[in-house]
Write a structure and sequence with these properties.
The protein has helices at residues 30-35, 46-50, 52-58, 62-79, 83-114, 128-144, and strands at 16-23, 38-41, 117-125, 174-175, 178-179. With 181 residues, it is an alpha+beta fold. A three-stranded antiparallel β-sheet has the order 2-1-3. The chain has a two-stranded antiparallel sheet with strand order 4-5. The termini are far apart.
Length: 181
């Protein structure tokens, strides 16, 4: 490399980005709530490219599975089983599978939101464990933050009538710190 000293190695830092989805619930048990938090890796999914149907079934994405299978079988039906039609259907099926692999994790995030999860944050790290550690470090601080009690409104005592507000007199020409007029 130009400008580098002999024997020097360049450190390579790869960072993976995860979208974090949190279930919308009022669990008092913070550990049970934390166990249900989902980390979805952003970007291309190799497993969704190699075995897309199994990937969909593993993540319990039933609607997407039915649509994907209908699309693949629909291509084969539309182009027929003869040589050229099967070849076109194969190439289009491959293109759809590659497109699916790029969008698979985004579809998973949409599925989580349909099931009652909400987008909580973005977590980054060299691997999933590091991203989880950085997320839970800030998330736990937010969970442990004490909530301020809301002061009660003026208490109304039964049987006691509130006094009427004082009326302005002739000598009341000052409101607060500002003279009136």
């Amino acid at each position: 490399m130009p400008g580098s000293s002999p024997g020097m190695t360049r450190l390579r830092h790869e960072v993976t980005v995860y979208s974090v989805y949190e279930p919308v619930s009022d669990d008092d048990d913070i550990a049970a709530h934390a166990d249900r938090i989902a980390f979805v890796k952003d970007g291309f999914s190799w497993l969704a490219l190699i075995v897309p149907a199994l990937w969909l079934l593993y993540h319990r994405m039933w609607i997407e599975f039915v649509i994907f299978m209908a699309l693949i079988f629909g291509l084969e039906w539309a182009f027929g089983a003869d040589g050229q039609g099967a070849q076109i259907a194969g190439w289009l099926g491959l293109a759809i599978t590659v497109l699916f692999a790029f969008e698979a994790n985004d579809l998973r995030g949409a599925m989580l939101q349909r099931r009652g999860y909400r987008f909580a944050a973005v977590a980054t790290g060299r691997n999933r464990q590091e991203a989880e550690r950085s997320f839970f470090t800030t998330w736990l601080r937010r969970q442990a933050r004490p909530t301020r009690p809301v002061p009660p409104a003026h208490k109304i005592t039964p049987g006691v009538q509130a006094s009427a507000p004082a009326r302005r007199g002739a000598g009341d020409d000052v409101i607060g710190l500002f003279p009136q007029g």
